[in-house]
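Reviewers of the previous submission asked for a worked example of the structure-prediction workflow described in the proposal, so we include one complete record here. The input consisted solely of the amino acid sequence. No template or homolog information was supplied to the procedure at any stage.
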Amino acid sequence: MRAPYVIALQFLLAISAGAQTSGSSQATVDSKTSATQSNSTSNASRPLSSVTEITVTAEPLPVSIAPASVSVMTDEEIKQAHALTSADLMRDVPFVNLAQNGAAGSLSTITIRGGKPNLVLVMIDGIPANDISNLLGGAFDFSTLLSHDLERIEVVRGPLSSGYGSEAMSGVVNVITKPTHYESNITVGVEGGSFGTAGANGEVEGAQGRLGYKFSGAFLRVGEQVESDAFSTSTVAATGDFYRNSATVFSWTARWIQFERSGFPEGSGGPEFAVLRIPETTNSGNLFGGFVAQHQINELWTTAIDADVFSRGEHSYTPPILDSPHPSNASEPSADTQTRFTRSRMTVQNTLSLTPKLLAHLNFQGAGELGRNDTILAGYYPDHFYDNRSIFNFTGDGVYSDRRITAMGALGVNKTSGFNVQLAPRIGGSVTVAKNTIVKASWGQAYNVPSFYSISDPVVGNPNLVPEKLTGLDAGVQRSFREKLTLSATYYYNYFSDLIDFSATQFKLVNRTSVHTQGLETSTSYVLAQYFQVSAWGSFLDWNVGMSNEPLRDVPDWQAGLNLDAKFPKHVRATSSTYWTGRRYDYQVPVPEIGSTGGYSTTNLVVTYDGLRRTSLFVRANNVFNARFHQYIGFPNPGIAVQAGASYRLR
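From that input alone, the workflow returned the following structure tokens.
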């Protein structure tokens, strides 16, 4: 408990030391985001996010030279998409597999390079959003996150525990909301459409001297789409920052997300095969809060104190999942569950400019996790656990960058109470081998500490579980032709060991020996003048599960995407995205004889009009060709869905 006082003392000493320096160099606002904060307004420097940089280490780097496999969805792309939730956005991110258990608003998780959903760390404004207290074991549900105030989404693929700790085995998704722009704006928007879709959003921002602020809120409701699958969600957020002087800045964020839904539970066979027609219901509330104080001591050293908290409460009821009208032991009992999870963290971040080309980062973090799960099985049998643990993380890296070479080396050290020390090294580099040709390669190791649920659940939990581990590497090349045509290809290989999985024979969670995945990721884009752009991508995945006849479920062998973006005269713009996916293995309790699903394509179209002075209009059509397909066995797509809306800027 003394650690926070030691951290605070270091920061006060740093400010005192900084008062002796000129403070002429400008500090960044938050090293956990990819924003380079370098804009200026009247009398004070102000932050501005860069659309060309992402955070792979602690240092923002241009995407083209970042020593990692990266995909970025920019502010312009998010705005043009007019997506209902971030799940619709993630479907358009290359090399990411979005698995949606039914229609819009249903459980939507992602996998990267064959890893499980809980092996992808999701951060919202730098705050981890994975909940390790429920049966998902830390997977993030993207259907709960609205897209109205998102600035950009960065997806870094590969083992990244060296910088982000546990859960960052397959990759990291960094969701960044819109920053304060230091100008008085009031914006409101409404939308409506198929299946009783109705939504509204608003945003107010401004500045008072050196203080910048922004308040936003949104609500969305969608009615029944196939059967018993309505949902609603609302978000309220406040962000701001204060510039004490050119060297010291304070920033903060707070966000509340309330989410409710109903639908057929996972594994039930969905509307087509479920024996019982009783929907699962979920009601959850999520709180994010963060504060950063950053000070540039001198031209060589910048330090920051970062404190944040994530808290989530959920109540869900899952009806019995029967294997037949006359159920056997293969059926699952009903579950009335309440969970509560809280993660609080405090971090000291230090950036050292050793030379103009060499930077080093040293970060020290203390965290606490507290989780509780109370479940009533079959309406009678109690099943509950309560657990907490303390965590210490150290991450350090060095980044060298010049006109031709970018190289980095990183090491993460983790000590979670109840487990041995975990090490996560990583190295990577990119080299410009010829004009407009860049070669990249990286290697790393990562880990995932078992979740509260997997250790403590009285029914399936196993206190003897050990952390899951991954060794992964990738190598690729990118080539540009006259800034119009860009081609890229990346090969990757992953070796997972001690993966946590459910054993039907032991009826508990166990560590599996090994899983190998490898594949190829390719992409291309072409820009024709300034009014038309086409981009395409494709990925192939091969996997092998050691010492088991079980397949790797919910992961397609191949995926592909095509995006068209056209700007027409008179302020009209149209974008189209088509997504193809191969078949994948699945399991539903009522139909064990059906083992796979998929092999489908779907197309979305968005048209916007910005010809009015303060008003923007849009129409979005999902699944415009009304394709009939299933992402999970028994869960059909509801067909074509159309939304239309308008936003108005008061000033």
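Confidence is low (pLDDT under 50) at residues 1-52. We consider this example representative of the routine output the project will generate in years two and three.
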